[in-house]
Amino acid sequence: MRIELTVNGEKHLIEAEPEETLLKILRDKLGLTGAKKGCDTGTCGLCMVILDGKTVKSCQIKAKKLKMNKVVTVEGLGKPGALHPLQKAFIEHDAVQCGFCTPAMLIVALDLLSRNPVPSREEITKTVSKVLCRCTGYIPIIRAIESLAEENKRKLTSKNKPQT
Amino acid sequence: MKAFLIEESVKKLEVVGKPVNRVDALDKVTGAAKYTADLYFPGMLYGKTLRSRYPHALIRGIKIGEAEKLPGVAVVLTAKDIPGEKRFGVVIKDQEVLVSSKARYLGDGLALVAAVTEEIAEEALKLIKIEYKPLPVVSSPLEALKEESPKIHEHGNLIKSYRVRKGDVNKGFSESDVVIERVYTTQFVDHAYMEPESAVAVPSHKGVVVYGSMQHPYSTRRVVASTLGLPLSKVRVIQTNLGGGFGGKDETASIICARAALLAVKANRPVKMVNTRSESMLESYKRHPYIMRYRVGVSEKGEIKAMEINLLADGGAYASTSPFVLWRSTVQATGPYEVPNVEISSKVVYTNNPYCGAMRGFGSPQVNFAVESIMDELAEEIGMDPIELRLKNAFKNGSETATGQVLNGHVVSIRQILRKARETSNWEGKRKLYKVQKGRLRRGIGIACCYRGVSLGAEGKDFAAAYVNVTEDGGVIVACGIAENGQGAKTVLSQIAAEALGVPVDYITFLGSDTSIVRDSGPTVASRGTIMGGGAVKEAAVKVRMKMAEVAAVILKTQPEKIIFKGGMVYDKENPEKHISFKELARRCYKKTINLSSIGWFRAPEIYWDEETGMGTAYFTWVYSANVAEVEVNLETGKVKVLRVYAFHDPGKVVNPKTAKSQVYGGVAMGIGYALLEDYKLEECIPKTLNLRSYRLIRAYEMPEVIPVFIENPDPVAPFGAKSLGEPATEVVAPAIVNAIYQATGVRIRSLPVTRDKILKGLKER
Ligand code: FES
Ligand code: FES
Is the residue at B608 inside a domain? Predict the structure, then answer.
């Protein structure tokens, strides 16, 4: 079957098997290897991407359910020299060790901050809990996201402050 | 062995000790970093492994005809197609890349398929017909030792045993006021690195190039070369980004790389093999479960008089590094305490369970759980505070370990650490506070501490190599045999190179591990990356610096000894006005055809070990740690919540405070998993937890607050004083939690992991 996906703003016409997963399409057909495969049971969350504005485990989405969808993967965030603030925060807070969970962590964080620019620590922790990480103990990841939440809060309050 | 000048390790450091960002983070946050499974080559095939249906069985015949006929299948291989050595193993050559006549656990591979897609390869596996003769299984180490039990290997079921005898335990026990005896047990633990094992093999002229995710590219090269019957020089192993290792990607990685290489050479096409999670959990080696019997005698004043220790470890189907793991457990079994009379017997045996090998801690998490639990049980018995009891017996400079090693040459900081722990965690206040509690939720605080031999010790040849090359424009290329496992080795070693050359860290380009570029440096295990790799990098960098200093001296009209390198500039020490930039100096050296590349070699000091008596210098230096944990237990549900963990470590010198803290966070997370969540279960040698649902890893919402505290005592044998941290970070978390649970509930858990059921049962019996 033929599907049309707009991935990170770029349109692709793809020939796929109905049972093929979105993860496989992204990795094998589009060369976007940021999303990883870490399990066979939909548990690890390492394959997270944003599909039509919602985070999904791309290993759980079959091609037959897709048509004309919009997908955002880690490759769509920012490039060296023009990094997304989240990427910068991950580097600065040492939220990256082996890096295998990093693309998925960035995706769930991006989604959270786009819905709620000033999430609480609880909300951040809940979001980070969607993805497994064996290296970092999650603390640096939570702090990286929190640093952006704080920055957003500062921006919001300074904007709301009446001009003097 | 060259001792690094103390002067150098304490001088004002420019790069070492600074919170530098990880050098490989940029690639990882953009998704550009390639892991093995992310590699694609034209014409690439996909390989799959057929594994045994029985945990113990003779293989009577394998029929591959049907599988070969399936359209899309390129090759099907079995053990008889292996051109080289059939067996491999670091200590005992008892393992096969594909088994030929006997399967010894459920993870054993019998046949391989390469096909144009993964799906076809899987289809083909189903068409392979195996004739088995199932054999009775040996499912526990106690059974393995019985005379009448089936023999798993021809040489019997014992892999290795050790004994340590010091003083006279009988005398020690007769001098004791209190003697207690307890049995502690631990579980199988999976490394559960997020990236399952993977390899891509590409045939090359008369040889093969293997890209893989392994911790020890050189041992992989050894196995691939011997299996394929190739010289080492024809096998090039390139480590791609590694999605986690924790000790687990050695043999398992060698196996998948050798299999992919076999298929690739036979098909003459690139072959990719990626294990699924369940294949990984089925096949990969685990952390050993132990049965540990401790008998300890103390005086009423709290002086330990004698320890009698019996360790029995389940090695599973193959020896792997079991002898080394057990050796470390044996040496460290008494904990960091002066014990005048010691008797230790330890054994590791074969069973038909998954085999066990290296995992973060390497034999220490088990014995630390036992000895640190019994220390608390003793404290309770004689009515003494647990830290007080530890301080009474803890090592000091000049103390003698159970194996007769006198601790000197470095600061024996365990007492310093214990005192710091008591003060930082408000130990006394909290102990008192939690003594009187009411209601459903009960809190407790607990401590555990340890000492750890650095690097391999008598576990193996201990050396590392590095290559440093300063380019004509003043860039610095560094390569080292120590592998980046995600722990930050590249960053820390870049810092060490930058420090030695007096340049900013961004001058350094650190190459990935490639066995054809740098010499074998031993495995990146045993928390040896910084001390061994750092030693080699530093030596190579210093050699280059000396050559550059000579040229600089001519230019600045002074002597080479007076030249200093700092912040990318090169000065005359006595006359700083006279200077030249590092880059300009490199250019001048190039013009003068001076060779600015060098090989560094770092060898660990000799150690001595007597197998018979179990006495000797086990490790050339040691590190010390303690953890304090605070927990809250729900008496109705038995649920344990870890509230806070203080982690105290003396790694010598912290090379990078940022990455060091992260190592601690990750280590604590893994330690909590060990204490409360992770349990690789088997029934009659059949694994029951082959996915990440049934095998539970900690998630973000379960993480406590973690407070790392570093107590630095630079070690003169280490580069810039820096020793190790990776394993200490995880190895005393579990006993600290278990001791805290006891304070909260009065329930003493002697088998890991702590579950709700065990707590509820304990509460009932209390
Ligand atoms: S790969 Fe694990 S959830 Fe998708
Ligand atoms: S950084 Fe390794 S899994 Fe998260």
Answer: no
Same domain, B403 and B442: yes
Tell how far CA A3 is from the center of its chain.
22
Q: Are residues B51 and B25 part of one domain?
A: no
B4: helix, strand or coil:
coil
CATH code: domain of residue B687: 3.30.365.10
Of B40-44, B113-117, B554-558, which range is least confident? Answer: B554-558
pLDDT exceeds cutoff 70 at B2: no
Residue B194 to residue A136, Cβ atoms within 8 A: no
Range of the domain at A113: 85-160
B29 contacts A83? CB cut-off 8 A: yes
Residues of B in contact with A106 (CB under 8 A): 29
pLDDT for B303 beyond 80 = yes
Alpha carbons B692 and B695: distance in angstroms, whole number = 5
Question: In this structure, how many other beta carbons lie within 10 angstroms of the beta carbon of residue B323?
Answer: 18
* Least CB–CB distance from A94: residue in B486, B659, B697: B659
How far apart CA B671 and CA A90 sit, in angstroms, is: 24
Average pLDDT of the segment spanning B67-77: 98
Alpha-carbon distance of B291 to B313, in angstroms, equals 6
B154, burial (CB in 10 Å: exposed 0-12, middle 13-18, buried 19+): exposed
Whether residue A35 is contained in a domain is answered as yes
Cα–Cα dist B253/B357, whole Å: 13
> Taking the model in full, what pTM does it have?
0.93
Is a pLDDT exceeding 70 seen at residue B525?
no
Give how many domains chain A has, as a whole number. 2
User: Which token pair is B452?
Assistant: 């750890």
| Residues B677 and B729 occupy one common structural domain | yes
A46 lines ligand 1 (CB under 6 A): yes
pLDDT tens-digit series, residues B134-165 = 999 999 999 999 999 999 999 999 999 999 99
Count Cα neighbours of B143 within 13 Å in the Cβ-side half-sphere.
Answer: 15
